Amino acid sequence: MTPRQCKAARALLGWSQTVLAENARASLVTVARFEAGAEVRERTRYDLQRALEDAGIEFIDDGVRLVARA
Predict the structure, then answer these.
(1) pLDDT value at residue 56
(2) What is the pTM of this model?
(3) Nearest Cα to 42, choosing from 54, 34, 32?
(4) First to last CA, the chain
């Protein structure tokens, strides 16, 4: 997941950085730094991506899409 994909995923969900941080159990500062292009730990990137995927985001090529939930 790239910082650009993270921002796009949040936009599709209508999530703020704060909401993503809460769902990923990360700090708001970490989310903001990642989206600004700073390096974060692999585990942190995984946690951010997992929170977005659990909310219905699918990462495709260099984009994202919202998947309908059954």
Answers:
(1) 96
(2) 0.94
(3) 34
(4) 25
What single string gives the DSSP state of each residue in the chain?
--HHHHHHHHHHHT--HHHHHHHHT--HHHHHHHHTT----HHHHHHHHHHHHHTTEEEETTEEEEPPP-
Unique residue bearing structure tokens 């990360």: 26
Q: Is 11 left (phi over 0), alpha (psi -120 to 50) or beta?
A: alpha
Over residues 35-62, the pLDDT tens digits come to 999 999 999 999 999 999 999 999 999 8
Angle, in degrees to the nearest 10, between helices 42-54 and 3-13: 30
